[in-house]
Amino acid sequence: MTQETSDHDVQDSEQIRVLIVEDETDLADMYAEYLPEYDTSIAYGGEEALDALSEEYDVILLDRRMPVVSGTEVLAAIEEQKLDCRVAMVTAVNPDFDIIDLRIDDYVVKPVTRAELRGTVDRLLKLEEYNERMQDLTSKKLKRNVLQVEKTRAELSESDEFEQLQSEISALESELDSLAAELDVEDPDTA
Q: Do 139 and 54 fall into the same domain?
């Protein structure tokens, strides 16, 4: 059975749903306490996580090594169900090259501080926002390209709709630049 935790005093708490999958009860509860601004659910192990996947989550924080049903098996179920969420492995297992093939967005090695966990969730949400904006930008650019091919320069320059489209493209490009800068992770080779 999953445990629900939320802080209704915080704006958007019901809009951002986080599933914590962790077989160590105290650790799972602590992670939920670290994230009071989100609507969090806890699955105390892989079996509970498989049941919880019937609900929609924005972010899943997934332990890799759990008895009975591992985090890798939960990840396979997420893929099989084609769930639209961001996944971070939060685990004591040191990463190896096998993580390249895992459909995860982040890999965090325990122990994890409050700041690290919150930073992970925030980064995953920014990544999702970036992808949504990029999709919107691509759609608008494709429409602009079609119009540029099909309409004369005079028609384009006289169109308020085309001018609005150009403004929206410019605003999205600026927003994407800002999001990309926020998502930039320092390269350990240059640090």
A: no
